[in-house]
Amino acid sequence: MQTIDVIRESLIAKLMAITDREYLLALNKLVISAEDAEEVVLDEDQLAMLEMSEDDAANNRLVDHHKVMEDLSARYKATKKS
Questions:
Q1: CA geometry: angle at 60 spanning 72 and 65, to 5°?
Q2: Residue ranges of the domains in the chain?
Q3: SS3 call for 59
Q4: pTM above 0.70, yes or no
Q5: Element (H, E) at 31
Q6: What's the pLDDT tens digit per position in 3-29?
Q7: What is the CA radius of gyration of the chain?
Q8: d(C-alpha 11, C-alpha 6), whole Å
Q9: How many CA atoms lie within 13 A of 60 on its CB side?
Q10: Would the CA dihedral through 65, 67, 70, 71 be positive or negative?
């Protein structure tokens, strides 16, 4: 894994090569918003949902994305027919 210093130096080198003012302004806005980001405080229900999700993942109770999309598509088509 790269050290923070190596990543930082790589980013600085890439930034120095950018000449598009609008692109640099957008990047600056992104960095500023990341600095101002507040810690998210979750309520008890949200924490319980996260714990249940982690338990589902730990116990392999998962449905892959492709299967979910197939099911949603089938439901959508069924509602269009009726």
A1: 25
A2: 4-36, 44-81
A3: coil
A4: no
A5: helix 21-36
A6: 999 999 999 999 999 999 999 999 999
A7: 22
A8: 9
A9: 0
A10: negative
